[in-house]
Every structure is written in structure tokens, then in C-alpha cells.
TrEMBL record:
Its EC number is 2.7.7.60. One of its GO terms (molecular function) is 2-C-methyl-D-erythritol 4-phosphate cytidylyltransferase activity. Keywords: Isoprene biosynthesis, Nucleotidyltransferase, Transferase. This is 2-C-methyl-D-erythritol 4-phosphate cytidylyltransferase. It comes from Blastococcus haudaquaticus. Belongs to the IspD/TarI cytidylyltransferase family. IspD subfamily. Catalyzes the formation of 4-diphosphocytidyl-2-C-methyl-D-erythritol from CTP and 2-C-methyl-D-erythritol 4-phosphate (MEP). The lineage of its organism: Bacteria, Bacillati, Actinomycetota, Actinomycetes, Geodermatophilales. HAMAP family: IspD.
Length: 219
């Protein structure tokens, strides 16, 4: 199976609050996006396309020499759509990954690829929910507890049969924004399988996450 990786790296990282785009923020001296590209390649992806903020393209070319870059969009959905258009002729599988998950172990990538190889059209890595999880009303008052044994936290990379992902994005209305790519294929009725995720694949969202990742790298 020839798998192409798409790395969504065009976000600004408002919640992290750094003075450069989140994907370029260094972790142990290397930009987050470089770690995430390497994770995909180490796990068995053959080549990678990275969606970057158009106005920062030169900085990304420096951070990722020789890697194919495309201009991302205003939302994650738009960025993945742009990269998928650029990559649509490549490979029979596509793995979509967040630049913000730099320490994803290669085993997670390999598990996603193995499930695709086994015939799945859509695969996501997941983790159990470990806290009591509740719904609240507009005033923040709990309206009920959710059955956490049925809930999962969804990570990336998310893997797809290429034709399925292309069709799902093709049928998604322009301007629609979904929080991940599994939701895009689910919206056209494709079953999404799950494989085990990994706590080390945590998303860097706020400064505390970056501090934890630094500790993880430095041991
Ligand atoms: N227009 C966008 C927005 C997000 N992303 C990417 O989607 C991933 C997950 O998004 P998130 O962690 O929310 O990143 P940001 O949107 O940059 O963060 P924030 O919401 O704090 O600004 C990131 O790797 C980010 O670069 C993207 O490619 N294009
Ligand atoms: C794609 C994702 O990482 C799966 O958990 C998540 O939906 C991204 O959410 P964000 O709000 O764009 O960080």
C-alpha cells in the first residue's frame, strides 16, 4: 500500500500564544511540524504534503527542506481540503495528521496503516475517557452524565482509503467546518473503525502541553 501523509500545519496557535505559528514553535530545538512529518515517515507513510499558512511559506520551506507544501485555509477543514487537492493523484491511502501532535509514536501510524491494509476505509486512533464526563446547560449546570464507556478521545493520524476521502470532501458543502476528517467521511455514511491511540500522541494546544512534551523528549 502506498500511503500519502497530509499534515495540517496552517493554524496560528492562538491558545498556545507563541509569537510564531504553532507548527513552527520549537520542541527540543526543532519545529513541531518537523517532528510530526518525521512521525508519519517513521511509521510507514511514503511521502508527505504539508498545509501551511500562505504568508509564512518561506519559513516553512526552511523548516521542511524538500517537503511538498501547499497553502492552507482559514479552518482546519479548508487546509486539509487544499492539501488533498494537491495530493489526490498520489497513493491509495491518505493519513491526515495534526502538526500539533509531534510525539506520535510510529506504532500508532503503523496501526492505522495495518487497519487500512486489512480493508478498512476509515480508521482513527482513540483513547478511553478517564474522567467522569457530563453535559451542561447554558448556565453551566450539569444536565446529566455521559456514558464514558461508550466515549473515546480521537487522535491523529486518521487514515482513509484515498477515493473515500476525496469523495467525502467533494460532497462536503463549501465552507462547512468539521473538527476532524473522520467526521467528514462519517457524514457520507462511511463506517469509521478505531485502533488504539497513545497518550504520547497528545495534541499541543496550550503552553502546559508544550512543557509536558519538552519533558517527554528530554526524559
Ligand atoms: N486553518 C487551520 C487551522 C488549524 N490547522 C491545523 O490543525 C491542527 C489542529 O488545530 P489546532 O490544534 O486547533 O491548531 P490551531 O488552530 O493553530 O490552534 P488555535 O485554535 O489555538 O488557534 C493544527 O496542527 C493546525 O496547524 C490548519 O491546518 N489550518
Ligand atoms: C483533529 C483533532 O486533533 C482530533 O482530535 C481535533 O479535532 C482538532 O481540534 P482543534 O480544536 O482544531 O485543535
Amino acid at each position: 500500500m502506498h500511503a500519502v501523509g497530509i499534515v495540517a500545519a496552517a493554524g496560528s496557535g492562538l491558545r498556545l500564544g507563541a509569537d510564531l505559528p504553532k507548527a513552527l514553535v520549537p520542541l527540543a530545538g526543532r519545529p513541531l511540524v518537523a517532528w510530526s512529518v518525521d512521525a508519519l515517515l517513521a511509521g510507514g507513510v511514503a511521502e508527505v504534503v504539508v498545509a501551511v499558512p500562505a504568508e509564512q511559506r518561506a519559513a516553512f520551506e526552511t523548516a521542511l527542506p524538500g517537503v511538498r507544501l501547499v497553502d492552507g485555509g482559514a479552518t482546519r477543514t479548508a487546509s486539509v481540503r487544499a492539501a488533498l487537492s494537491a495530493a489526490h493523484d498520489l497513493g491509495d491511502a491518505v493519513l491526515v495528521h495534526d502538526a500539533a501532535r509531534p510525539l506520535t509514536p510510529p506504532e500508532v501510524v503503523a496501526r492505522v496503516l495495518a487497519a487500512l491494509d486489512g480493508g478498512a476505509r476509515a480508521v482513527v486512533p482513540v483513547l478511553p475517557v478517564v474522567d467522569t464526563t457530563v453535559a451542561v446547560d447554558a448556565d453551566g449546570v450539569i444536565t446529566g452524565a455521559l456514558p464514558r464507556e461508550q466515549l473515546r478521545r480521537v487522535q491523529t493520524p486518521q487514515g482513509f482509503d484515498r477515493a473515500t476521502l476525496v469523495e467525502a470532501y467533494g460532497r462536503l458543502p463549501a465552507g462547512a467546518e468539521l473538527t476532524d476528517d473522520a467526521a467528514v467521511v462519517h457524514s457520507i455514511g462511511v463506517p469509521v473503525r478505531t485502533v488504539a491511540g497513545d497518550e504520547r500522541a497528545a495534541k499541543i494546544t496550550v503552553a502546559h502541553d508544550l512543557a509536558l512534551a519538552e519533558k517527554q523528549v528530554r526524559g
